[in-house]
Amino acid sequence: MYPVMLQIANQSVVVVGGGSVAERKVVGLLEANAAVTVVSPAVTEALKELAAKEKIRWKEKTFSADDIDKAFLVIAATSDRHVNEAVAQAAKPYQLINIVDDPERSNFYVPSVVRRGKLTISVSTSGASPTLAKQIRDEIANIYDEEYERYVDFLTACRRYILQHVDDASIRRSLLKTIATESFRKSGNWEEQFTKLLSQYKKQP
């Protein structure tokens, strides 16, 4: 396995299936700003609402091979193994495909995810046990709480400032390392502490 983070904003993604599993997949895909099409004769109320608001495209039909012709990524999320198998058979070698009930036929897995703004933490058992992955995800979520969203935004702004205004490479490395430490995060007023750090380095000969 080779873990990656995919940039799928505005990419065509097809989810085959309209039940609760498909709904969860769609929600995650929309968070990544994918262009989602759902193929299913029936869908959950939440998916109907998303279609009504034009957040997704809903093809109210049974699956056929041409439904995924132009898809960058495909997820087969029905409760019917015959349909999921048909999706697997129809997928092209260059397409990313996940069959929710058959990891062996998939060429990627959807991990359990903790999101805190720009911070994304993924947990995967390579399809062996999604339940265990969710348990570990929940443990991680308790450690990396909502504060980290603001902290990562702060680090983003600081990194941009340091790269633009600090010429000395060793000082840049030291600053970037210091503001990412646990002691710095727990210090309280990050902006004030960062300003002090900058002034200290400016005073160095």
From TrEMBL:
The reaction(s) catalysed by this protein are: precorrin-2 + NAD(+) = sirohydrochlorin + NADH + 2 H(+)
Q: Which SUPFAM superfamilies match?
A: NAD(P)-binding Rossmann-fold domains, Siroheme synthase middle domains-like
State whether keyword Oxidoreductase applies: yes
> What keywords are annotated for this sequence in UniProt?
Lyase, NAD, Oxidoreductase, Porphyrin biosynthesis
Biological process GO annotation list?
Answer: siroheme biosynthetic process
Report the EC code(s) recorded for this entry. Answer: 1.3.1.76
Which residue numbers delimit the Siroheme synthase central domain?
Answer: 116-142
Q: State a single Pfam family of this protein.
A: SirC_C
Pathway(s) it belongs to: Porphyrin-containing compound metabolism; siroheme biosynthesis; sirohydrochlorin from precorrin-2: step 1/1
GO MF assignments: ferrochelatase activity; precorrin-2 dehydrogenase activity
Q: Which InterPro entries match?
A: Met8-like (IPR028161), NAD(P)-bd_dom_sf (IPR036291), SirC_C (IPR042518), Sirohaem_synthase_central (IPR028281), Sirohaem_synthase_N (IPR006367)
PANTHER family in UniProt: SIROHEME BIOSYNTHESIS PROTEIN MET8 (PTHR35330:SF1)
Query: What protein does this entry describe?
Result: precorrin-2 dehydrogenase
Species name for this entry? Answer: Anoxybacteroides voinovskiense
